[in-house]
């Protein structure tokens, strides 16, 4: 069966004897922590909400446990630093940490993956979308930097959640496509009927679906961010009043 990385495996990675590599891994953990906490918790709630819908009226009742999963999963986006605070941590602190080095390293890792896999026979089309989304992410980072430096700091918290989501979608697509690439290499060596075949095949379809259905949304979010609409900040307080 497929061997998954254990806690000990990750611990070894973080305590590399090579200080340069250890610093790289620590930097990536720092940068990606708000994404892991927020994107995963938001998706957990959305998955549970969809599960209720899938069950129809039965999902809404207590006959099945999904209504409880839905309520329980909501807390993940609230405690341990609400997701908005995580997004503020990402744009206000993590992106620029070490002179922006961790962010640049992540962008470089993804860029190298795109260059190496653009011509992949089954994943190439999806990798192309990843390249476009990575470029859009780079533009969004520059836009944020421009707001910090150009005195438009009020724009930063306004778009922080959207930025966190778009960056997460790029990272998730990259990791799914990398897993699919490995699965595609393994597949020819797995006998028909062996359970690993279904596992590896699923990796390809999950990655392609995500790249072609979710990832284009990241490019759109970057465009929205770039458009710099500040209308939410311009609403006069009295306009919220009910008549
Ligand atoms: C079931 C449960 C278990 C918990 N367990 C623990 C525990 O074990 N230990 C512990 O210490 N705490 C615990 N908490 C508390 C939890 O950490 C807080 O509820 C959480 O930090 C949010 O704080 P708050 O409820 O005061 O909301 P608020 O801080 O009032 O936030 C309300 C909303 O406003 C947003 N917001 C807040 N500040 C800003 C800002 N500056 N800009 C924009 N938006 C902002 C938030 O993102 C949030 O969406 C628990 C809470 C619950 C419900």
Account of the protein in words:
The longest helix is centred in the first third of the chain and has 37 residues, at 19-55. The protein has helices at 7-14, 19-55, 57-60, 66-74, 83-94, 97-117, 124-149, 155-186, 195-227, 231-234. The protein contains ten helices and no strands. It has one domain (7-229). Helix 2 (19-55) crosses helix 8, helix 5 packs across helix 8 (155-186) and helix 7 (124-149) runs antiparallel to helix 8 (155-186). With 243 residues, the protein is mainly alpha-helical. The model has no long low-confidence stretch (mean pLDDT 95). It starts with 6 loop residues before the first helix and ends in a 9-residue tail after the last helix. Residues 75, 78-79, 82, 84-85, 157 line the site of flavin-adenine dinucleotide (FAD).
For this entry, give a set of tags.
243 residues, mainly alpha, 0% strand, binds flavin-adenine dinucleotide
Summarize, please.
The mean pLDDT is 95. The protein contains 10 helices and no strands. By secondary structure, it is mostly helical.
Poorly predicted runs are: none
Q: What overall geometry do the principal axes of the alpha carbons give?
A: globular
- Counted beta strands: 0
- Taken in chain order, the helices and strands follow as HHHHHHHHHH
Largest sheet: none
> What percent of the residues sit in helical stretches (DSSP H or I)?
over 70%
Note the topology.
Elements: H1 7-14, H2 19-55, H3 57-60, H4 66-74, H5 83-94, H6 97-117, H7 124-149, H8 155-186, H9 195-227, H10 231-234
């Amino acid at each position: 069966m497929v061997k998954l990385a254990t806690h000990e495996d990750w611990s070894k990675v973080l305590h590399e004897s090579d200080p340069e590599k250890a610093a790289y891994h620590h930097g990536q953990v720092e940068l990606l922590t708000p994404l892991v906490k927020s994107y995963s918790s938001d998706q957990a709630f959305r998955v549970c909400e969809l599960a209720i819908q899938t069950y129809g009226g039965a999902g809404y009742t207590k006959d099945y446990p999904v209504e409880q999963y839905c309520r329980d999963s909501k807390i993940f986006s609230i405690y341990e630093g609400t997701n908005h605070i995580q997004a503020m941590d990402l744009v206000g602190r993590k992106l620029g940490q070490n002179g922006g080095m961790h962010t640049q390293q992540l962008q470089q890792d993804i860029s190298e993956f795109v260059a190496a896999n653009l011509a992949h026979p089954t994943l190439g089309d999806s990798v192309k979308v990843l390249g476009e989304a990575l470029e859009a992410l780079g533009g969004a980072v520059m836009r944020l930097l421009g707001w910090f430096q150009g005195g438009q700091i009020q724009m930063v918290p306004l778009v922080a959640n959207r930025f966190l989501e778009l960056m997460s979608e790029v990272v998730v697509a990259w990791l799914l496509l990398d897993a699919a690439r490995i699965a595609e290499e393994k597949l020819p060596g797995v006998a028909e009927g062996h359970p690993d075949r279904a596992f590896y095949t699923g990796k390809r379809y999950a990655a392609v679906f995500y790249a072609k259905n979710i990832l284009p949304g990241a490019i759109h979010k970057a465009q929205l961010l770039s458009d710099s609409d500040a209308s939410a900040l311009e609403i006069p307080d009295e306009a919220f009043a009910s008549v």
